[in-house]
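User: Design a sequence. Structure:
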């Protein structure tokens, strides 16, 4: 009895402090008196309603609990829905309906693809082939993984890429010789994959929904149509520049404990040979996933397919996996629901901030601070705002709340609208601070190699690196490529 009592862990005071900090932030914001209106340069007032203030309160509690992981991240998401309903911020039917938003189901279907690749053995084949090419040096394994991840996001959604690459990384890490134990190599491999998936996804309109939505939004405001290849022309050097910068970043902050894994290439070849020829399930899985990716990619070029939502297309793969008995009920039960719930809550708080007007109120208050600034300072202030917001809410929403305000102020400062659009799109694709910022972040977390606090900690220098490179793009790279960054005098 005494031994059992002695074995009991001490009370976790740190967890209690952070839990109560989140509750205190919620209570302070929710119950404090009405805050003043935000006023844009045209004199338009944006009132922060009690519901909007409540949305900010929920946002602060969720952010605190997510960063310090006081409860499982999926459970924090449930609190987002509960607080909205209990404190009359949004009706239950609205707040909880967001938990099954098409974006959440897209993530579910992407994770299913990853499970299929793992179960059939396709992942191991891909991992062994890649290791045969990149060799035994851990620095080259980092680079190989990052390049493959970035390249794939040019033709398919970064969520699907992360779900496909994730089991491949598990297979690679299994050969590192440290079991499931967290290591610097493991952290760099999985966090790096998540970061690079974001960097690669900015290059084309196929990498994520944010690009197409932002271009449509831009056309509506500025009445200028930006084409598929024009976007890629300006984004290619930035996306790939960040991919190689992130490789250097992880080689410094997460330098693998081993410079090389002796005999890895031979071991990979041996394991690949042992697998024999492709099985029926592997072929079926490859055909189904290949067909789904092809159809989703064609949506950008075939008008008839544009009307069909990509979520319905990718969910067809989930159904077909069961139709052809590649997956069974046990596999459905193995889905990481903590990750699905995480994104469900992220969608709910994102829509909550958007629909209550809280997000626009924050955007106007932030951007008017720079309404008399130098053009470069103004563009970087927009980029910073979008980067911070995209860690908490959908990147599409982060762009949608900041672009209209920025484009109103821009002419007064002589700033060209193109540079605002592209700078916003760059940072919106790379939320390095919170798991909820992008699906690849949450998928990487499932590896167990890092905590939410570690992800946040390394995300700070990575975000600074992103801001510096975005600044270089605005000031040097894009002007050299022919992008106007300032308006002609009198224009």
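Assistant: Done.
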């Amino acid at each position: 009895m005494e031994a059992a009592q002695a074995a009991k862990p001490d009370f976790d005071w740190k967890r209690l402090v952070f839990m109560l900090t989140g509750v205190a932030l919620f209570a302070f914001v929710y119950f404090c008196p009405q805050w003043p209106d935000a006023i844009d340069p045209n004199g338009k007032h944006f009132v922060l309603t009690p519901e909007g203030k409540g949305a900010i309160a929920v946002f602060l509690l969720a952010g605190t609990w997510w960063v310090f992981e006081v409860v499982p991240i999926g459970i924090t998401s449930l609190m987002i829905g509960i607080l909205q309903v209990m404190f009359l911020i949004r009706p239950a039917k609205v707040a909880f309906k967001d938990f099954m938003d098409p974006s959440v189901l897209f993530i579910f279907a992407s994770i299913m693809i990853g499970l299929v690749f793992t179960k059939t053995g396709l992942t191991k084949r891909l991992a062994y082939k890649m290791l045969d090419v990149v060799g035994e040096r851990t620095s080259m394994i980092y680079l190989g993984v990052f390049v493959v991840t970035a390249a794939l996001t040019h033709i398919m959604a970064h969520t699907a890429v992360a779900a496909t690459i994730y089991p491949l990384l598990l297979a690679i890490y299994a050969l590192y010789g440290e079991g499931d134990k967290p290591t610097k190599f493991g952290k760099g491999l999985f966090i790096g994959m998540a970061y690079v998936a974001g960097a690669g996804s900015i290059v084309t309109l196929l990498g994520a929904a944010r690009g197409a939505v932002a271009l449509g939004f831009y056309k509506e405001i500025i009445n200028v149509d930006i084409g598929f290849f024009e976007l890629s022309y300006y984004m290619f050097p930035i996306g790939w520049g960040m991919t190689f910068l992130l490789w250097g970043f992880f080689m410094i902050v997460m330098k693998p404990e081993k410079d090389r894994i002796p005999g890895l290439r031979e071991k990979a070849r041996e394991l690949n040979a042992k697998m024999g020829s492709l099985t029926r399930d592997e072929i079926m899985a490859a055909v189904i996933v290949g067909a789904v990716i092809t159809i989703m990619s064609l949506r950008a070029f075939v008008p008839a397919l544009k009307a069909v939502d990509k979520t319905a297309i990718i969910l067809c793969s989930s159904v077909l996996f069961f139709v052809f008995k590649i997956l069974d009920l046990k596999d459905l039960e193995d889905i990481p629901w903590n990750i699905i719930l995480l994104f469900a809550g992220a969608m709910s708080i994102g829509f909550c901030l958007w629909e209550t007007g809280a997000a626009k109120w924050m955007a106007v208050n932030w951007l008017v601070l720079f309404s008399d600034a130098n053009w470069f300072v103004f563009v970087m202030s927009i980029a910073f705002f979008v980067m911070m917001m995209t860690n908490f809410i959908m990147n599409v929403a982060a762009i949608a709340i900041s672009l209209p305000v920025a484009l109103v102020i821009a002419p007064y400062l002589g700033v060209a609208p193109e540079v605002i659009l592209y700078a916003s799109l760059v940072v919106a694709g790379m939320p390095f601070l919170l798991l909820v910022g992008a699906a690849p972040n949450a998928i990487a977390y499932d590896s167990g190699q890092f905590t939410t606090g570690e992800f946040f900690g390394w995300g700070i220098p990575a975000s600074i690196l992103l801001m510096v490179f975005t600044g270089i793009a605005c000031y040097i790279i894009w002007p050299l490529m022919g992008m106007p960054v300032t308006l002609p005098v009198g224009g």
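The longest helix spans residues 452-481. The radius of gyration is 23 Å.
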